[in-house]
Amino acid sequence: MEVAVLGPVPFLVLGVLLAAVLVLVAIRFWSAVRPVPAGAEPPGLTRLRRVAVLARVLGLFAGLATPFLLAGVGRLGLGLALAPTVVAAVLVTAGLVAELLSWRDARGGSAALEVRRVRDYLPRATTGATVAGLVVLVAVGVWTTVVAAPDDLGRPGRSYGYTCRYGSGCDSGSFGPFPGSFYTVPLLVGLVALLVLAGLAVVVAVRRPRDGADSAVRRVDEQVRRSAVSTAVAAVLLAVSGSLTGIGLTAGRGLLVHADVLSGGLRVAGVLITGAGLAGLGLLVWAVAALVVPLVTPAPAAASPVPSAAPER
User: Fold this and answer.
1) 209: helix, coil or strand?
2) Which of the residues 154, 240, 249, 311 could staple to 133 if both were Cys, CB 3.0 to 4.6 A apart?
C-alpha cells in the first residue's frame, strides 16, 4: 500500500488558517505603512517599523506559495518533503534582509553603551518547543532511516520491509514510500543550513545598533528587535514541526495499516511514531501562531525621548 511522504496535512492546516491570517496581516500592514503625523516620531523609527513589517508580510506570502511551487520539484515527493524547511528559510531570509536594510535606522546621532545578549531575546516557550520538537524529529528520523530498505526499483531508503508475525498467514512483506534516507538525508542537510541561517539572523537582529539614550527609540526598537528574533525561532519551529508531522504520520500510518501482520513491538512503534506526528501537528499550529502574532500586534506609539543612558563620545 502506498502512503504519501510528508503529505498535504501540514499545508491543509495552513490553508484553514490562511483566510483569517490574511485579513489580520492586511490590517497590520496598513497600520504600519499609513502616514505618520509630522514630528510624531523620528523618521528612522518609521522606516524601521515599515521595513520590518513589509519584509515579514512579503516573506509570509512567499512562504505560503512555496509548497505549491515545490510540489512538482524533485523526484517522488522530495520537493514536498523539503517544503517546510524551504518555507522557513524564506521567512528567515526576509527577516534578515529587513534587519540589514534598517541597520542604522534606530541609531540616530549616537549610540548608548549597551550589552545585549542573544539569550535575553529568545522567546522561551517557542525556543523550548523548537528544541523539544527537534529532539523528537531526530529520534524518529534516525529510526526510520535505519530500518528503511530499498524500494522495488532499488532506490535506497524508500520502503519498509517486515517479517510477518507467526500465525498471521504471511511470511514477509513491504510497504512504501517510507521516510528513510531518500528523504531524511536531504532533510538533514536542509535543517542544518536553516539553523545556520536562523542563527545569523538572530545575531544580526540583536547586534543592530540603536540610540539607547532615547527612550522612544528604545521602546520601538525593542519590539522590532524581539519580533525579529521571535520570527526566526518560529520559522525554525515551522520547519521542525512540519517535517515531524510528515515523517511521523507517514511512517506511523504505514505501520498501523499493517499492524495485523506485524509483531507487537512494531505495533507499539507505530502508535508512538503516529503520536509524534500528531504532536508535530500541534507544534505546527504553534509555529503559525508565533509567526502571525508579531504581524497583528499593534506597534507601540512613539513618545517624547527621555534620556536614560549616557551616549558614547
Assistant:
1) coil
2) 240
Give pairs for 150-156: CB < 8 Å, separation 24+. 151/176, 151/177, 155/76, 155/182, 156/180, 156/181, 156/182
19, amino acid identity:
A
Q: Which residues contact 173 (CB under 8 A, 6 or more apart)?
A: 161, 162, 164, 258, 261
97: Cβ–Cβ under 8 A, 6 or more apart, which residues? 55
pTM of the model: 0.82
- For residue range 214-247, what is the model confidence (pLDDT) as tens digits? 676 777 788 888 989 999 999 999 999 999 999 9
Give the CA distances from residue 176 to residues 3, 179, 255, in Å, rounded to whole numbers and listed in that order.
Answer: 6, 8, 10
**CB burial of residue 305 (10 Å; 0-12, 13-18, 19+):** middle
pLDDT in tens, 27-80: 655 555 555 554 555 656 777 777 888 888 888 888 878 887 887 777 788 888
CA angle 287, 290, 291 (to 5 degrees): 90
